[in-house]
Write a structure and sequence with these properties.
Radius of gyration of chain A: 24 Å
Largest sheet of chain A: none
Number of strands of chain B: 0
Structural class of chain A: mainly alpha
Largest interface: A-B, 48 and 55 residues
Order of helices and strands of chain B: HHHHHHHHHHHHHH
Helix content of chain B: over 70%
Oligomer: heterodimer
Chain lengths: 310, 355
């Protein structure tokens, strides 16, 4: 009779931290738990996560949360009211629109920009990087040359020129930012691919007759994801800032859309006397991009303990 | 000396020279393809995306024969690869067409405004390195302390704040309220017509000519945008310095230096920082390139008559020749700095030479 080990209660701390998981499910949950514990030790990272969750909630419930119409203002009674006015916590702009309501609705535009840029740029980088790393040879040389060319460009200036040609608008701004932000992802995915390209599990899959297409799609790409996610999260702040910069120059979202960068531009005229019109959207941009930076930093430390504290 | 010795020596020498030859060739290929890539992208943006560049010039109400003539003048009836060939040839001779807004050749305009941007980026980089390196060293030495946390948060805010917004607010505070700095622009209107620049770097020019009042005025103009750009450079430089220093402080030679009884100050500033300095030079060069680009928004806020303001002004007026010319110049400088810093790193760090 063998010694029966006391199996810990499912989903308890011991069960999650067990070094002998009995199922794939348990192993995965255990890994996630360890990462979460490392992540949550970092108070700044938790703050970042809180900010992003708040942004998601605000964007989801914008219609309920916003006290006023974000597009139509009260020109008669509510022009350029200072912050703290009755009913207008953050003041109003030159068209009598509640700044708080505009910021709340603007969070949707911000989310839309970062989600779309990530959805366009990350897969491009992932495909280029993994294919280039796995195929090697000429394919690698050509793809990496193209990546390096794009990497050598100044991002903002290229995005400016692209939007100038495509015409102003939030869709074109998103496209321009996406076109300029995929190369780092390709580099990361390639570097990751190279580390396990010749490892045994790839040989095993190959031996079982998997096509290169299947190997890259099912076995290489999933392993590149975690470092890619960290990098995308860290890039979110830069994407927000670029989008805001384009909006500020009048090339992003067009009026009356409450895009934060465009709001700063419209408040520029009153900056000396009614500072809040331009100042408030800037605080929103600062807080959200700080949130993404903190979250990205924390994620990197949690997923890659080697780099922690560097 | 035997025969075999000499042949071995010559063979070794030849193999080394062919190694450097290969490296130079690879470097040249990188330069050429990157630059051609830049031109291909701007060509694509300027010629392929617009439905008809000729219509963009004459307007959609022009009679058909005018449109046709303009198309011929622009070479739009040629196949695309021939158009690209002429485009590259023009770009290599510095011909980016004529600016619609200023009616000057774009290259002349850029030559006029570029020193202003260089001056601003230089001041910003000096500011960033001057404060960023000590802060990074401090954070690395006192790792985990309050000081480390503060440096980290200051850096993260630098990464997260929209530069144009910070510029606007600092103008309100330091110009409008406190009157510490001068009005946006490079010089007061009094000096604008009496001062003759030599190099286009006003701080330098006024010093050389001994015009102290002009120097002081230029300084009062550049300090705010320079410090603002410097803050972004500081965020990047301090973060990288911290990471390099942490790496160096873990090395064994630090232990050896401590065992020898050297003072901690000496170890940190002379031993560790010196070794961290090699990659730091690359970082500073890259941040300089970043500031050239970052100046686009800063110059717009501070009415700084540099390349950034030129590009944004042209954008507002749909002056595509000027926009693309500016893009090519910024891109070329960017590429050049990237490659130079890479080259510098290889020369300075002996470990990278063998590869």
């Amino acid at each position: 009779m063998s010694v029966v080990e006391q199996t810990p209660k499912p989903y308890s701390r011991d069960w999650l931290l067990s070094d002998r998981p009995t199922s794939r499910h348990q192993a995965r949950l255990g890994r996630a738990y360890v990462i979460w514990r490392r992540f949550s030790e970092n108070r700044l990272a938790l703050l970042g996560l809180g900010i992003i969750l708040l942004l998601l909630l605000v964007a989801a419930f914008a219609d309920v949360l916003a006290p006023h119409n974000p597009v139509q203002g009260d020109l008669m009674n509510a022009r350029l009211l200072p912050p703290g006015s009755a009913g207008y916590w953050l003041g109003t702009d030159d068209q009598g629109r509640d700044i708080l309501s505009r910021l709340i609705h603007g969070s949707r535009l911000t989310l839309m920009v970062i989600v779309l840029v990530a959805v366009i740029a990350a897969p491009i980088g992932l495909i280029v990087g993994t294919v280039s790393g796995y195929a090697g040879g000429w394919v690698d040389a050509i793809l990496m040359r193209i990546t390096d060319i794009f990497l050598a460009f100044p991002k903002l200036v290229l995005a400016l020129a692209l939007v100038a040609a495509l015409g102003p608008g939030i869709e074109n701004a998103i496209l321009a930012i996406a076109v300029t932000s995929w190369p780092p992802y390709a580099r990361i995915a390639r570097a990751e691919t190279l580390t396990f390209r010749n490892s045994e599990f790839i040989s095993a899959v190959k031996l079982m007759g998997a096509s290169p297409f299947r190997i890259v799609l099912r076995h290489v790409m999933p392993l590149c994801l975690s470092s890619l996610i960290v990098r995308v999260t860290l890039d979110m702040a830069g994407i927000i800032l670029t989008a805001a910069g384009l909006g500020f120059l009048g090339l992003g979202a067009q009026p009356p859309l409450p895009e934060w960068g465009a709001m700063i531009a419209s408040g520029r005229r009153f900056i000396l006397d009614q500072w809040w019109v331009a100042a408030m959207p800037g605080f929103a941009i600062l807080i959200v991009s700080l949130g993404f930076n903190l979250l990205g930093d924390g994620l990197r430390d949690a997923l890659d303990p080697k780099e922690a504290g560097q | 000396m035997t025969l075999t010795d000499t042949t071995a020596a010559t063979r070794r020498k030849r193999s080394r020279s062919s190694f450097t030859g290969k490296a130079v060739l690879r470097f040249l290929v990188t330069v050429v393809t990157t630059f051609l890539g830049l031109l291909a992208v701007t060509f694509f943006i300027g010629r392929v995306i617009p439905i008809d560049p000729a219509l963009a010039i004459v307007g959609d109400r022009a009679p058909a024969h005018v449109v046709e003539r303009v198309r011929e003048q622009l070479g739009l009836n040629l196949p695309l690869y021939q158009q690209f060939y002429f485009y590259v040839r023009d770009a290599l001779t510095g011909n980016f067409g004529t600016s619609v807004l200023t009616t000057n050749p774009v290259m002349d305009d850029i030559r006029r405004v570029f020193p202003a941007t260089m001056e601003l980026a230089t001041i910003g980089t000096i500011f960033g390195a001057l404060f960023g390196i000590p802060l990074g060293v401090l954070a690395a030495v006192k790792r985990g302390s309050i000081a480390d946390q503060i440096v980290r948060v200051v850096g993260l805010i630098g990464y997260s704040v929209p530069i144009f917004w910070l510029g606007l607010l600092s103008l309100v505070l330091f110009y409008a309220k406190l009157r510490w700095v001068a009005y946006p622009g490079r010089l007061d209107i009094v000096y604008e017509y009496t001062f003759t620049p030599i190099t286009g770097f006003f701080l330098f020019d006024s010093l050389v000519q001994g015009q102290w009042d002009v120097f002081w005025d230029a300084f009062r103009h550049i300090i705010l945008p320079g410090a603002l750009l410097g803050y972004f450079s500081l965020a990047y430089i301090s973060r990288m310095t911290r990471s390099f220093m942490l790496n160096e402080l873990q090395q064994e030679y630090i232990v050896a230096a401590r065992a020898k009884g050297l003072s901690e100050t000496r170890i940190i500033w002379f031993h560790a920082l010196r070794n961290a300095g090699v990659p730091l030079i690359t970082v500073i060069a890259l941040s300089y390139a970043g500031l050239l680009e970052g100046s686009v928004l800063t110059e717009t806020i501070f009415s700084w008559p540099g390349l950034g303001l030129y590009i944004t002004n042209s954008l507002q007026n749909a002056d595509m020749n000027a926009v693309l010319g500016g893009t090519i110049v910024v891109g070329s400088v960017f590429i050049a700095i990237n490659l130079l810093s890479d080259l510098l790193y290889r020369t300075l760090d002996p470990r990278t030479r063998s590869r």
